[in-house]
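ENTRY TYPE: paired fold submission
RECORD: A
CONTENT: sequence, then structure tokens
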Amino acid sequence: MSTHSLDARRLLCPMPVIKAQNRVAQLQPGDILEVICTDPGARNDIPAWCRINGHRVLDVRQQERDIIIRLEVGSDHD
């Protein structure tokens, strides 16, 4: 298991989800991806995408203007 970071700041919907999807496709099951974004919609969009695609949201937090979403890559991704 390894931890990775994705800077999706200043991107608007649906780009944070698309960038997260593309990055997850390069990772292994059990890896952690921390997505840093500024689009408020990502707070709901990325967790919804995770539920649909078998990934687990570890936490969602706000740090000043940044929204930080940590997820664990599921085993059923391509």
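RECORD: B
CONTENT: sequence, then structure tokens
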Amino acid sequence: MAGGALRSDHQRNTEMRRLLALALLVPMLVACGRVIPQGSVPPPAVTVPAAPVAANAVLAGVALGPSLAALSVSDNDARGALASFIESCPRLLAREDASGLTRPDDWRGACDAARSWQPGRAKAFFAQEFTPVQVGDGKAFATGYFEPEIAGSRTRRPGFMVPVYAMPPDLVRGWPDDVPASERTGRPPLGRYDERGRFVLYHDRAAIEDGALAGKAPIIAWAADPVEFFFLQIQGSGRLITPEGEVIRIGYAGQNGREYVGIGGVMRERGLLGSGPGKYSGSMQGIMAYIRENPQEGRDLMRLNKSWIFFSELRGDGPLGALGVPVRRESSVAADPAYVPLGAPVWLDLDRAEANGLWIAQDTGGAIKGANRFDTFWGAGEDARRIAGGMSGRGRAYVLLPKAAAARLGAR
């Protein structure tokens, strides 16, 4: 998913060495107060002056966090996190860490220990293997997501008219003719070739809803409610329940490459959200209420989000996160891989008690960008819908790194 797929192995290795060198330099560049005794309150943010927006965790700055004992990890929390961490280990040992915080071999000791660790002693595992660190200022913001259950059908019939598309064959990556060869760096954009052979942007949400893919893309099933399906696309996976009781599980397969727009933010800018007469709550439920009560305005609002998600049918365990392993209720969290190694444990201490505790970073999201930005996973069902739809928590976050990686970064 990250840019640079066309770069050579030599270039990638050079960049990784540069990141590791920066990892050693950053703690010396910032004030000495960033390295603090274990158990102390973390210091305020210290901004690395090299760039106004840090490109990864190393450039954002890394400081030592409190001890695991000070975080008050519960037994149940630790057991769930341990199980999810074990599922993440094969990926942790094989993938490059875009955050610059770790190398694959850093995780080997913890993964070896986890496989034979007794679940009843899960808290001791995290205390033995990891060091909590603060990335940037550590100020966290967390939302929630879930696996929606909506009405669907294998076949098109009255009441089921919203196509659930699989990946279309004409969605490809390429360079528009007006992009000079010297600027063709990183990963080419998504798009399609039109009838004249020109590379153009792919169909946006409005065009797809108006039939641009009719007869051109495979259809997995048909949804009953376009509003429910819109929010299922935002979640990235879900379950279609047919009138006959069949459950069709679908998961993210790809995206059209067009801009994602959070319609809640648009509604807030327009003064539609808040308290008082004529206002709607900022939760998913409040946004849906506005769309249903104002059909034309609601349709136009949804079309501002030009992004369209394509699905594949899931037949095994799941739903699968960006790491390629199943995400689990109250154990899996989406994060920005530029700031959190995918597969790493994360501690959240928020003003929403239900989201506090240990999570494993196993997913990403189009709106989950930046240091200390997280999206907590709550499973399926009505309570998951309620919690995730209203989740908006602020507080602190710590990333748990293998002790050798934390020491190499200077967090000691």
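NOTES ON RECORD B: The first strand starts at residue 62 and ends at 64. DSSP finds twelve helices and 17 strands in the chain.
STATUS: closed
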